[in-house]
Amino acid sequence: MFNGIDQWLETIPALAVCVIVGLFVMIESLGIPFPAETILIAVVGLISQHALHVPVIWIGVAASAAAIIGDSIGFAIGHRWGRPLFDWLGRKFPKHFGPEEIGYAEQVFQRWGMVAVFFGRFVALLRTFSGPIAGTLKMPYYKFLIANVSGGIVWAGAITSVIYFVGEAADKYFGQFSWIILAVAVVGGIIIGLIIKRRSSKGAAAKRKEEPAAVDR
After folding, report:
1. For residues 191 and 162, what is the distance between their CA atoms, to the nearest angstrom?
2. Under 8 Å between Cβ of 151 and 64
3. Is the separation of the CB atoms in 147 and 108 below 8 Å?
4. 177, 169 in Cβ contact below 8 A?
5. Which of 43, 47, 51, 46 is nearest to 7 (CA)?
6. If 0-12 CB within 10 Å is exposed, 13-18 middle and 19+ buried, where does residue 3 land?
7. pLDDT tens, 117-140?
């Protein structure tokens, strides 16, 4: 069974794998909720297990470039259409673009600016809204670009390096159980991302409830 899967994976051209990873990362960076980080982790995990014969550095470059380009496009979209677009998306997709999610992201970016752009790349909720929110708040593009480029490179480099070496170590020390170790790492990453997103939404909702009470006093 696994031999057949491995043989099929080996037929995928390296360039095609890089393009697919890049497209997924770019889609998420545009402001569309998408599990790009999970896909990136899975691909790098397959490379570490020699199921995909793609230089891992190519994947890192593709992911970082896609993150930078996608966030820049998202910034332009937010700068041009901004709040009307988020209001429309909130009505159509309240689960992903509700006032709590958008309000929380705006509070973070208004307070932290470039720092939020850089570290937002590592947080599930902020990673999706980074470009559009920064554009909506009219952050100077040169500041956004500096934080965007550095954040994209560090994020992609950290993900690819850590997962690749974890996979290599798992293969070396756990042999046939290495796939289980990688699966646990991927599932753990998804769970952590969901927890962060849920807590962020709750925190934003609580903050919005406190603000009217403070005004009434």
Report:
1. 18
2. no
3. no
4. no
5. 51
6. exposed
7. 888 888 776 777 788 888 888 888
The shares of helix, strand and coil residues in the chain, as percent rounded to the nearest 5, are 85, 0, 15
pLDDT digits (tens, 9 = 90+) for 33-84: 777 888 888 888 888 877 788 899 999 999 999 999 999 998 998 888 877 7
Question: 14 exposed, middle or buried (CB, 10 Å; 0-12, 13-18, 19+)?
Answer: middle
d(Cα 213, Cα 91) in Å, to the nearest integer? 26
**Angle (nearest 5°) at CA 100 between 97 and 103:** 90
In this prediction, residue 209 carries a pLDDT of: 55
What's the rounded Cα separation, in Å, for the pair 136 and 32? 16
| C-alpha separations of 103 from 38, 208, 211 in Å | 25, 8, 12
User: How far is the C-alpha of 39 from the C-alpha of 48, rounded, in Å?
Assistant: 14
% of the chain residues with pLDDT over 70: 64
Q: Are 167 and 45 in contact (CB under 8 A)?
A: yes
